[in-house]
Design a protein that fits this description.
Blueprint (H helix, E strand, L loop, with lengths): L2 E6 L6 H11 L3 H4 L11 E10 L2 E10 L6 E2 H9 L5 H22 L7 E2 L5 H21 L2 E6 L2 E3 L2 E5 L2 E5 L2 H6 L5 E3 L9 H10 L2 E2 L6 E9 L10 E8 L5 E13 L4 H13 L4 E8 L5 E9 L4 H12 L5 E10 L2 E7 L2 E8 L2 E4 L1 H11 L3 H18 L1
Parallel strand pairs: 1-6, 6-11, 7-10
Antiparallel strand pairs: 1-13, 2-3, 4-5, 8-9, 12-13, 14-16, 14-17, 15-16, 18-19, 19-20
Helix pairs in contact: 1-5, 3-4, 4-5, 4-7, 8-9
Length: 394
């Protein structure tokens, strides 16, 4: 399945707007943001509330904290994130966002990057906005599957001026303009700031494509609200998750690697299957067969793409000691599938949903079984009941 996330900042973007939009996309944003508690920051809290912006429902992220400092150097923020126990991909994304901010600030003010001192951006709420947004971005991917493309539309920019720690600045802010260099922008007819440097940096560091919404089928959508509620435009940022249309039912060329063995121990066979799957096999299995001279044996089959064909062939032959294998080109039909979640015994269970049924993820059931001492079989029955109830309510 190929998924794309389209972000529409045509009315602007800020850290809290993106935080709100991503929160609306995931099943349990509070749980997804729990790793933020491990950051060495002042007392803080994040609440999500549904509000109206120009008549449209949107999620507002309310960040409150006890301010004990007016700002931080870029190097301090980078060390804070780098030395945390956050997921690696969240650390890398957050550091990329702050590095982009620091590079632009250094260029704007003519100082070395290590001497960049963030005021607004260095405050606790901005750090929570950035790191929290990256946490929610990957929480969404954990729920729905890999997101291959994050596309961002033209960024809406207002005009006028804004008061900052450096004094009164023109709008769009110089840092925002610097960050959005070579990115598409559009006008918002308002004398106020619509896109903050933090919002711009998050968009640029997350996007791998700029333009219109990708073609496909809409699976989820959300809106994040800004603080103000102007009369002349909706102060929101929108997101749409799409499943690419060509993946609804597609035929893809794959390869079957086959070999017969009669002298390999069960332990080696089990390890071989595990290694084949770890190194990129889409599937691997063993079928009992009767070989020549009536000897019982096993037929090992591996399904893979052309990219993994050679490496998996080499692994199969080396692991089993077989003197040869068969390579067969096959067509694989893939039906569309989506992912949904339910809550079971206080834990999240992911469901893979296809055209003809739905199934809970086994690893989620095993995780809950270890915590509750309830059998996986019983948990599977409970999960299916909860999923069916949710579908009827929807």
């Amino acid at each position: 399945m190929s998924l794309s996330l389209w972000i529409d900042p045509s009315f602007g973007a800020s850290g809290d707007m993106l935080l709100g939009a991503f929160a609306e996309m995931v099943a349990d944003p509070e749980q997804a943001l729990s790793p933020l508690r491990d950051l060495a920051l002042e007392d803080w809290d994040i609440d999500f509330k549904t509000t109206l912006r120009n008549g449209l429902n949107a999620t507002k992220a309310e960040v409150t904290y006890r301010q004990t400092s007016t700002g931080r150097k870029w190097s301090e923020i980078d060390a804070l994130v780098k030395n945390s126990i956050l997921p690696t991909q969240v650390i890398e994304g957050s550091r990329r966002t702050f590095l982009l901010l620091a590079e632009v600030e250094a260029e704007q003010h003519g100082v070395a990057i290590d001497n960049v001192h963030f005021h607004e951006v260095g405050a606790v709420d901005a750090i929570l906005d950035v790191v929290g947004t990256w946490l929610l971005r990957f929480a969404l991917e954990d729920e729905v599957g890999a997101i291959d493309k994050i596309a961002v539309g033209a960024v809406g920019l207002g005009s006028g001026s804004v008061k900052a720690d450096h004094g009164t600045l023109p709008l769009p802010a110089p840092a925002t303009i610097g960050i959005l260099k070579d990115c598409p922008v559009t006008n918002v007819n308002t004398n106020s700031e619509t896109c903050t440097p933090t919002g711009a940096a998050l968009l640029v560091s997350m996007a791998n494509y700029w333009g219109n919404i990708p073609s496909g089928y809409i699976r989820k959508s959300s809106r994040g609200a800004g603080t103000r509620n102007p009369d002349d435009y909706p102060n929101i940022i929108s997101m749409v998750l799409t499943e690419n249309s060509e993946t609804q039912k597609s035929s893809k060329t794959k390869y079957l690697i086959e070999t017969n063995v009669d002298d390999v121990t069960p332990e080696i066979l089990a390890t071989t299957i595990e290694k084949l799957l770890e190194l990129g096999a889409e599937d691997a299995w063993i079928t009992p067969i009767i070989m020549k001279k009536g000897r019982p044996g096993q037929e090992i089959k591996v399904l893979c793409s052309a990219d993994h064909l050679q490496s998996l062939q080499d692994l199969l032959l080396a692991s089993t000691g077989s003197l040869g294998c068969r390579i067969i080109q096959v067509d694989k039909i893939e039906l569309a599938r989506t992912f949904e979640t339910i809550t079971l015994h206080g834990e999240t269970v992911n469901f893979k949903v296809g055209p003809y049924g739905a199934k809970p993820e086994q690893r989620d059931l095993q995780r809950i079984a270890e915590k509750t001492n309830i059998s996986v079989r019983q948990l599977s029955d409970e999960a299916n009941l909860a999923f069916n109830k949710k579908q009827k309510q929807n």
